[in-house]
Amino acid sequence: MPHTIKQSWAEPYKIKMVEPVFITTREEREQALQQAGYNTFLLRSEDVYIDLLTDSGTSAMSDRQWAGLMLGDEAYAGSRNFYHLEEAVRKYYGYRYLVPTHQGRGAEHIISQILIKKGDVIPGNMYFTTTRLHQELAGGKFVDVIIDEAHDPESTYPFKGDVDLDKLQQVIDMYGAERIPYVAIATTVNMAGGQPISLANLRQVRELTARYGIKIIHDMTRVAENAFMIQQKEEGYAAKSVAEITREICDLTDGATMSAKKDAMVNIGGFLALNDADLYDEARNMVVIYEGLHTYGGMAGRDMEALAIGIAESLQDDHIRARVGQVHYLGNKLHEYGVPIVKPVGTHGVFIDARAFLPHLSQDVFPAQALAAELYLDSGVRTMERGVVSAGRNRETGEHNYPKLELVRLTIPRRVYTQAHMDVVAESVASVLAERDRIKGLKMVYEPKYLRFFQARFEPL
Ligand SMILES: *Cc1c(COP(=O)(O)O)cnc(C)c1O
Q: Is 357 exposed, middle or buried, given 0-12, 13-18 or 19+ CB atoms closer than 10 A?
């Protein structure tokens, strides 16, 4: 059969319930954007037509998950849903101990406070905003040991989430293993454009760290998507299921933080998972202070039930093929329109290279922020800046961090939008591209101290 025929996948579900969205006029959007300080995080969702701000907590739950909500056991202690969740984490991810948290950053907070001492260094395959901040607040310093290809939006290397083992060795030689409590490994790497790490590389990281007695803490927020890319692209994995590959990834690490709002398709929730009994004891002790009792950790019983079901669904091959397939559909469409995007297309979103899109703007006028604002004005599509605003300031010098990647992220919620929505988005980006010369930058007029991208305000230049 010629391989151009039968290329299409379709969603492995049909729609049972719909939620209306509203199409606004350009005047309405201008007003809304101005009120939001040109920050898409500050827009009201009702003013948004297609919401690609994030895939976090925005996915559609299945009928099984909704049914699970009705089975919520809201006992303060020992809820049956906690035990279901614990069972799912053990069965699918293989981690022995579970500490539920209200979301991913709750788990990051606990593991950082337990493992990091002042002056410690945490190497990682690129940073994530909340992860790095919790490492810093615990007295640690993040060091990026991802391969150089990850910082190059033009590189088509399939595993841009890989660790550069020479860089990691250098960090160990420079600081000494006793100052490195763990290596932080993300599957997939959000800030690099949703790029996966290969199992071959992770295995090498495991060997190197084992030699020095250094732990690996796994940011497993999108592990299913990473496992799918391994199945598709890494030699020797084509015949393995996403669930099997996921298990293989987790088995190479010592513990994990999870934002269940992504892969696992719940609106809120997360957890810390550990294999070491002593660490678990400490974490269980600490969760009571910051999140809640160790059998709910900030989640309702019903939410834990929906999460236990969502974990199983997230690892089904049909599901993940359609999920990543939709992201790639949008990516290919933008590429055909000549839009500069990070290649290869990631698993949870398409990242526009704002430097290449707006070559006339310097990073000091926040090109990605300006482009996100412009896309909203054009069509009511909401996207997110991932560039100099997200990178924040250097803690020592107070200067902006100037990341190499200045990106606008179009993140696709799971099971929410159709191919027609993707077409509308692609056409809008293409029409903004045609008029890019008139886009001017922004100036920041309000800057919060922490994670400034969430609440900063801007004015057009
Ligand atoms: C979202 C996310 C987090 C933080 O999780 P929250 O649930 O938003 O607190 C951590 N790491 C990665 C890679 C993420 O995408």
A: buried
- Are 305 and 431 in the same domain? no
| DSSP string covering 91-156 | III--SEEEEESSHHHHHHHHHHHH--TT-EEEESS--HHHHHHHHHTT-EEEE-B-GGGG-TT--
Give the list of residues 6+ apart from residue 337 with CB closer than 8 angstroms, or none: 426, 429, 430, 433
| Domain end among 269, 286, 314 | 314
Q: Which residues are catalytic?
A: 76, 128-129, 219, 262, 386, 453
φ, ψ for residue 19, nearest 5 deg = -125, 120
Q: What is the predicted pLDDT for the residue at 191?
A: 84
CA proximity to 355, closest of 439, 422, 423, 424: 439
Q: What is the pTM of this model?
A: 0.94
Ligand 1, closest atom to CA 188? 13
Residue nearest to atom 6 of ligand 1 (CA): 104
Residue 21, in any domain of the structure? no
* Cα 152 to Cα 229: distance, rounded to the nearest angstrom: 19
The pLDDT-based confidence of 192 (bands split at 50, 70, 90) is confident
CA gap 320, 244 in Å, rounded: 14
Q: Which pLDDT tens digit goes with each residue over 54-91? A: 999 999 999 999 999 999 999 999 999 999 999 999 99
Compute the distance from residue 291 Cα to the ligand 1 centre, in Å: 16
Atom of ligand 1 nearest to the CA of 103: 7
Question: Is residue 108 within 8 Å of residue 167, measured between CB atoms?
Answer: no
Sole residue written with tokens 């009928």 = 63
> For 349-386, how does the pLDDT look when each residue is reduced to its tens digit (9 = 90+)?
999 999 999 999 999 999 999 999 999 999 999 999 99
CATH number at residue 325: 3.90.1150.10
Residues with CB under 6 A from ligand 1: 56, 103-105, 128, 130-131, 186, 190, 219, 221, 259, 261-262, 270
Range of the domain at 423: 26-55+317-460
Q: Which two tokens stand for residue 1?
A: 């059969």
Ligand 1 centroid–CA 434 distance in Å is 34
Q: In the block, which residue shows the tokens 């696709």?
A: 412
Residue 90 per-residue DSSP state: I
Show which of 279, 314, 349 is a domain's final residue: 314
Amino acid at position 391, single letter: A
